[in-house]
Design brief:
The protein is α+β, with helices and mostly antiparallel strands and about 800 residues long. It is built from 21 helices and twelve strands. The protein folds into four domains: about 1-150, Helix Hairpins, CATH 1.10.287; about 160-375 and about 385-410, no CATH class; about 515-665; about 675-780, Alpha-Beta Plaits (2-Layer Sandwich). It has helices at about 1-50, 55-90, 105-150, 160-190, 195-230, 235-265, 275-300, 315-345, 350-370, 370-375, 385-405, 410-450, 455-485, 490-505, 515-540, 550-575, 580-600, 600-615, 655-660, 685-700, 735-755; strands spanning about 505, 510, 625, 630-635, 640-645, 650-655, 665, 675-680, 710-715, 720-730, 760-765, 775-780. Helix 1 (about 1-50) packs antiparallel against helix 2. Its main location: membrane. Keywords: Cell membrane, Membrane, Signal, Transmembrane, Transmembrane helix. GO terms for molecular function: mechanosensitive monoatomic ion channel activity.
């Protein structure tokens, strides 16, 4: 007791020595927390008063505040864990009946509890700052989106007005002059003579190399990959891969060539910041055209009908490709002209006119592209109605874009037309990627599950559904940020949402686990289960395939491997989520009693299934007789066992019944079994001869084993016959019905050849008196009733 008190005193002194620098640091942190709170109050007041002119500056300040608050929160939580550990070391406070603790320990306990309360208060204030800063950022983002849509819905002059044309023409001449002056200034900067000529030569060399690159790169990709692929029979996956290769063959040279040209222009001093924006817009336009060209070439496969993805003919496919290319060319020219006008400080009338006519042209192309005759398919299915509605909605949108541009809503028309093109590009690329991932997942399933037992169609359908659901979900999460940015949500806000989703957030005091941990847990689970499937397949094709183990033992081992892999996958995925397995075990123990009452039968069947797999009283392929029915064991699962009767019906028997009830297993240790064939002969027959004939028939049958030897039993003196029985053993008792039938044929034939009579059942009737004389005796023969089988039928 004295030693314990001494330890507590020394520990208290050490804590006091360490507390001095900590107190100084906490004073500065408290001031920072109060400063952050004041900043939040000031920002909220400015938002409410509408006094914010530059929202981006306020957003940067709030994001920095939130980042620092998160750092403070982490430090506070670490200190809280330390204080709690110190309180735990001191132990619980003495109760009323216990002796009081020393004054020094009591004082230290009070200080630690006060420190814990102070840290909890700081933690609450920091959490409030984080929450309020996020709320203010959301308000600022909403205000920016609202301001954007107000600008878009502001009506301006119509593009048909002559004044607009005059202003645009005047501005276009000024822009042309500024472009000429731009290159003149560059020439003046480069100087005369060899330096200027060298720059021009390098620029033309880069342009020539980029253009020439399209031919060899395109041919190399197509000849190396696409040609080899198209030699095979087309399938859904190969069509998609071929389309992707064609798009890559068109796009890759543009990416490489664009990098070469831009870097050459930058190296030669051609690109100023304004000129670089124009060059980037031109590059984006070229890449967009190449992507659409490659996509349509692979999607419609005009020269190879069997590799065509779209269910339309070549003529309509060519028309759709041309309209799609027209849309993307108009879109690219608009981006380029807008970038030039912005860099050259063009009059707003010129930029408005460019936006208006680009939107009108794109809207007209949308109407042409969605015509029904271009997409009409013979024997269309149920999905054609949805496709028809989508086409009509697209045509209505195209008409609305044209109308908005004509009446003066140029920004709105340009915004809608631009978003339609970007959405089409994103959805097209996402569809291509989705199709490739789905086919890859299905191919992997077919490859890895080829050697695993009991791979049924239902499991394949489930795998197909879940793999598509996972791929669709991941792609949707990848596309969603781009869609939000397209429709006006600030990129910084989208980034904040993504960060909160990846690193967790709180709703009403409930901490939502970060998506990063959820994804990592799912990935860990999938990887472990995939490794389990690979292990099952390897064991099935390797050691088990070259062993003498029967199919039942193989199935038990494969199933146990699957259960072990599932347990490991669950444990590792739960650990990846950040849960303490020790706490999880305590929770499971606390809930086990309540769960046991509700899930008693399920747990009973599960444990019984494990007993069946380990003890193996029955196994797959066994012929068993249970109170529920008789048949062959087809599958032993977690909850139940499937028995297929000889009438091809399936009986689902709970595993607990097979453990608690009596089960007859005809093939438990081996398939050797005995059959019995009863035979009756007349009283005038020679019993030794009958025995000889019966043994000869049994020994000559190919399915009857020589050891144990067949034998004949003289059962009884029957009322009409001498009753014998042939008993013989078979290597495979499942052939019992066949063997008994063949033995009966052989016995009947041998008796006929040897003159042994098989009598009818006879019965003597004595009549004491008759109307015409003395009592008479009548011998009446009746047909023998069919004898019931005493051995169950093992065949299907």
């Amino acid at each position: 007791m004295a030693l314990t008190s001494l330890r507590r005193i020394l520990f208290t002194l050490a804590v006091l020595l360490c507390a001095v620098p900590s107190a100084l640091a906490q004073t500065g942190r408290t001031a920072d927390i109060e400063k952050a709170s004041r900043t939040i109050v000031e920002t909220r007041a400015a938002i409410n008063e509408g006094a914010i002119e530059t929202p981006s500056a306020y957003e940067d300040r709030l994001r920095e505040l939130r980042l620092k608050s998160r750092d403070r929160l982490s430090a506070i939580e670490n200190e809280l864990e330390g204080v709690r550990a110190q309180i735990d070391i001191l132990g619980p406070a003495p109760g009323e009946a216990e002796p009081p603790e020393s004054d020094l320990v009591s004082e230290q306990r009070s200080k630690l509890e006060a420190e814990q309360a102070r840290l909890n208060g700081e933690r609450t204030r920091v959490l409030a700052n984080i929450y309020e800063s996020g709320e203010l950022l959301a308000q600022l983002s909403g205000a920016q989106v609202e301001a954007l849509y107000k600008r878009l819905t502001k009506r301006g002059p119509t593009p048909l007005a002559p004044q607009q044309w005059a202003l645009a023409w005047s501005s276009a001449k000024e822009v042309a002059g500024r472009i000429g002056a731009y290159f003149s200034d560059w020439g003046a900067r480069r100087g005369e003579g060899r330096s200027f000529e060298r720059s021009i030569a390098l620029i033309f060399a880069a342009l020539a190399f980029s253009l020439i690159l399209f031919g060899p790169a395109d041919r190399w990709i197509l000849n190396t990959f696409s040609a080899a692929l198209e030699k095979r029979e087309p399938s859904a996956s190969r069509r998609i891969v071929a389309a992707a290769l064609k798009m890559a063959a068109r796009t890759a040279p543009g990416v490489i060539g664009g990098v070469i040209i831009i870097e050459t222009l930058r190296a030669q001093g051609v690109l100023t910041p304004e000129g670089e924006a124009v060059a980037r817009a031109f590059w984006i336009g070229v890449l967009s055209c190449l992507i659409v060209s490659g996509f349509t070439a692979g999607f419609f496969a005009l020269s190879s009908p069997k590799w065509r993805i779209a269910p339309i003919d070549a003529e309509r496919g060519r028309a759709v490709s041309q309209i799609a290319m027209a849309i993307i060319i108009i879109f690219s020219l608009k981006i380029l002209l807008k970038a030039i006008g912005t860099a050259a400080h063009a009059d707003p009338a010129l930029i408005r006119l460019v936006k208006s006519f680009a939107a009108i042209a794109i809207g007209a192309c949308m109407i042409l592209l969605c015509r029904g005759r271009l997409w009409r398919v013979e024997n269309a299915g149920k999905g054609d109605g949805d496709w028809r509605i989508l086409r009509r909605l697209s045509q209505a949108l195209g008409a609305a874009i044209i109308a908005a541009a004509l009446v003066g809503y140029a920004p709105l028309a340009d915004f809608a037309a631009t978003r339609v093109v970007f959405l089409a590009l994103i959805i097209g690329l996402a569809w291509l990627l989705r199709a490739m991932l789905v086919e890859f997942a299905l191919r992997a399933r077919a490859r890895f599950s080829s050697g695993v037992l009991d791979a049924g169609g239902t499991e394949s359908d489930n795998y197909r559904f879940w793999s598509r659901l996972i791929i669709n979900t991941i792609l949707a999460l990848m596309i969603l940020p781009a869609v939000l940015v397209l429709f006006g949500v600030p990129a910084a806000t989208v980034s904040d949402i993504a960060v909160q989703g990846m690193f967790g957030f709180s709703i009403g005091g409930v901490r939502i686990p970060p998506l990063a941990k959820l994804f990592s847990a799912v990935i860990v689970f999938i990887v472990v289960m995939g490794a389990t499937k690979l292990t099952q397949s390897a064991v099935q094709r390797g050691p088990l395939a070259h062993s003498r183990a029967d199919i039942g033992l193989q199935n038990s081992l494969i199933t146990l491997l699957g259960y072990a892999g599932l347990v490991i996958a669950l444990v590792t995925s739960v650990s990846a989520l950040g849960f303490d397995l020790g706490n999880l075990a305590l929770i499971a123990g606390a809930l086990s009693v309540g769960i046991g009452f509700g899930l008693q039968s399920i747990v009973n069947n599960f444990v019984s299934g494990l007993i069946l797999l380990f003890e193996r009283p029955i196994k797959v392929g066994d012929w068993i007789v249970t109170p529920s029915g008789e048949g062959m064991v087809k599958k032993i699962s977690v909850r139940s066992t499937e028995i297929e009767t000889f009438d091809r019906a399936s009986i689902i028997v709970p595993n607990s019944e097979l453990i608690s009830s009596t089960v007859t297993n005809w093939t438990h240790k081996d398939k050797i079994g005995r059959i019995r064939v009863p035979v009756g002969v007349s009283y005038g027959s020679n019993p030794e001869k009958v025995q000889e004939i019966l043994l000869k028939c049994a020994r000559e049958h190919p399915l009857v084993v020589a050891y144990p030897e067949p034998f004949v039993v003289w059962n009884d003196f029957g009322s009409s016959s001498l009753d014998f029985e042939v008993r013989a053993f078979l290597n495979d008792i499942s052939k019992g019905l066949q063997t008994r039938t063949e033995l009966r044929f052989a016995i009947f034939k041998a008796f006929h050849e040897e003159g042994v009579e098989i009598p009818f059942p006879q019965q003597d009737l004595y009549i004491k008196s008759m109307p015409g004389g003395e009592g008479a005796k009548l011998s009446v023969g009746t047909p023998a009733p069919e004898q019931p089988e005493t051995v169950s039928n093992p065949e299907k």
